[in-house]
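Troubleshooting entry. The earlier prediction with magnesium ion gave an output that would not parse, so I re-checked the input for stray whitespace and re-submitted. Clean input:
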Amino acid sequence: MATLTVDPRVSGATAEFVSSRHLMYIDGRFVHAASGKTFPVYNPATGDVITHVPEAEEEDVNRAVLAARRAFDDGQWVRMAPSARGRLLWKLADLIEQNNDEFAELESLDNGKPFSVARVADAPLTVDMFRYMAGWATKISGSTLPLSAGYDFHSYTLREPIGVVAQIIPWNFPLLMAAWKLAPALACGCTVVLKLAEQTPLSGLRLAQLIDEAGFPPGVVNVLTGYGEGAGAPLAAHDLVDKVAFTGSTEVGKLIVKAAAGNLKKVTLELGGKSPAIVFPDARIDQAIAGTASAIFFNHGQCCCAGSRLYVHEKVFDQVVEGVSHVAEEIKLAPGLDPACQMGPLVSDEQYQKVIGYIESGISEGAKITAGGPVSGFERGYFVRPTVLTNTNPGMKVVQEEIFGPVVCAVPFSDEDVDRIVKRANDTVYGLAASVWTQNLSLAHKVARSLRAGTVWVNCHNVFDASLPFGGYKQSGWGREMGEEVLHNYTEIKAVTVAL
Ligand code: NAP
Ligand code: MG
C-alpha cells in the first residue's frame, strides 16, 4: 500500500487518527472485516486517497447483528436504569464536545465541507442531539387508561424498546446523521448496528472510539463500514433485526422496504426532497435573498431539505434572482480546510458527474443560467459553482428531480390566488420541507398549513433542532427523526389489562 499523506492543515490529533489503522466496532471490539478486505476513502478536494477502511460484508453484518441481538436479549441494557442510560449518552456528548474541532476536521477532509461550518454546525448539533436524547431516557413512559369495558379493570401501557435496530446513513452530514440515528435508539433502550456511508466513514469510526470510551456495554452499539449492496442490503434484510432506520435516496429507500418484508421489521425512512422556497412580494427582500440563497447553497445543496425550487412573485422576481445570483457568484470555492473556504467540493466524483449532468440537462432543455454553470475552473476536486437557473418549466428534470447539489431553479409566479402557488409548490412526489417568505402573518400561517411537507419554515430555512420532529410527507419518507416523535419510532407500546 502506498504511503498516504494527510492534509497538513489538520491538527496532530486528526492526522494521527487518519493515519492509524481503521477498524470497525463489533461487540465492544475493534475488528477487521472477516474477509480482510478494505476500501479507499477519498479527499473530495483533490480526489486523492486519504486512507482505507474495512469492507464489511454479510459475515460481518451477521457478527454485528448477533452481538446487538445478544446485548438486547440478555436484558442488561434494557434493564439499565434509564438515568444511567441518560448519563452514558451525556458522557458521550461531553467526549464529542471535547473533540469538536477534530470532528470538524474529519468532516471537512472526508466530506469536503468547510471546516469553519462543521465546527459550528455539524459537531455542536451532534452534541446537542445526544444531550437532548439523554434527557428523554428518563421520560419514556406509558399511561393509565379508563376502560369502557368496566370499572373492574386496571389498564396501562408500557413503552418498550423495539429491539435490535439497523441504521443506514448517508454522507452529507456523516457525524450528525449518526447522532440523529443513535441517540434516540439508545435513549429508548434499543441496541444498534450502524452502517456508515462508504464515502464518509471517518467521523463515524472516531465516534465508535468515543462510544467505547464512554463505556456502553459491548454489543449495544456496533459500527460497520462497507458498501450499500455488500453491507447495507444484508443488514436491512436480516431476520434478527427488529427495525431498520434509513436515510438516503428515495430509490434505495424503496429497496429497504422490500428487504424489510422478509420478517416484517419496522421501517422508518428519511429520503429525498425538492423543497420549495416561496417569496411573496411583501417579504423583507434582503432577508429573503440571503435566506433563500442559504437554503440551497448550505452544505453545497447536499441537504435533503435544500430549497431547490425558488418561487418568487413576479413583482420582486428580478430583484430576488439578481440578489441570489450575486450571492452565488460571491461564494468562495476552496478545499474545506482552506480558511477562506465558503463552499467546498461535492462529496464524490459520482455526485459531481450527477450534478453537472443536471445543469447541462437544464441548459439543453432551455433554462438560462444567471450564476454558476457547469465549468468550475478547478483542475482537481469535485467543485461545482453555485448555480441559478431561470426560464425553466414544470416538466423539466431540473425542476422535478432531486439534484442534491448547489443548483436552484427560480420560477416567477403572478397569482394573487395563494392556493395556486401552493398547488405548484406541492406539485412534486416529495414532501420534506418548504419555506415561506412574507411579513403577512396570516398569509404565512395559511400557506404553512396548506403545504404538504413535514417541515415549514417562515422567513428562515434549514433551522434544525433536536426538539423539532423532522421527516417527510409523500415519497420523502416514513416517520420522524428528533423531537419527542422519534421515540415512537424506536419503541413498541404494550397494553396491560388486569382484572381487579
Ligand atoms: P444512497 O445510495 O441512498 O445511500 C444512502 C445509504 O444507503 C448509504 O449508506 C448506502 O451505502 C446505503 N445503501 C445503498 N444501497 C443500499 C441497499 N441496496 N441496501 C441498503 N443500503 C444501501 O444515496 P447515495 O448514493 O449516497 O446518494 C444518491 C442520492 O441520494 C443523492 O444524489 C441524493 O439525491 C440522495 N441522498 C439523499 C439524502 C438525504 O438526506 N435524504 C442523503 C444522501 C443522498 P453506500 O453509499 O455506503 O454504498
Ligand atoms: Mg451510494
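This one parsed fine. Residues 228 surround magnesium ion (ligand 2) (CB under 6 Å).
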